[in-house]
Write a structure and sequence with these properties.
By secondary structure, this protein is an all-alpha fold. It is 82% helix and 0% strand. Helix 2 crosses helix 3 and helix 2 crosses helix 4. The radius of gyration is 20 Å and the shape is elongated.
Length: 101
């Protein structure tokens, strides 16, 4: 076995062990973020605010996302872009399926 193979196998083993430790915590943090009622409310408010401005499509998405990101930043909350997009998509789905727009 070459030195490259030994180093590679060591690296793969370390990476796998680290992933097995970190992945469950990251998954739980993402679930907690998306299911947080206060964050869901903030996302809904951002979506409804964009709709009240008469925005649709990309303009509505960008406005709602910028609003939500600003609220998160003001609250000292940092989140991955895909977490923000997920909670915002959930809010858009709720908005689109709400008869009381």
């Amino acid at each position: 076995m070459s030195i490259f193979s030994k180093v590679w196998n060591w690296f793969v083993g370390v990476a796998k062990a680290a992933w097995e430790i970190v992945a469950p915590a990251v998954k739980q943090a993402a679930v907690d973020f998306v299911n947080d009622p206060k964050l869901q409310r903030a996302a809904h408010e951002a979506v409804y605010a964009a709709a009240r401005q008469g925005l649709t499509g990309d303009k509505a998405w960008v406005t709602a996302r910028d609003t939500l990101v600003a609220q998160l930043k003001a609250a000292g909350i940092q989140a991955a872009a895909n977490w923000i997009d997920t909670i915002l998509q959930n809010a858009y789905f709720a908005f689109a399926n709400n008869d009381e727009k």
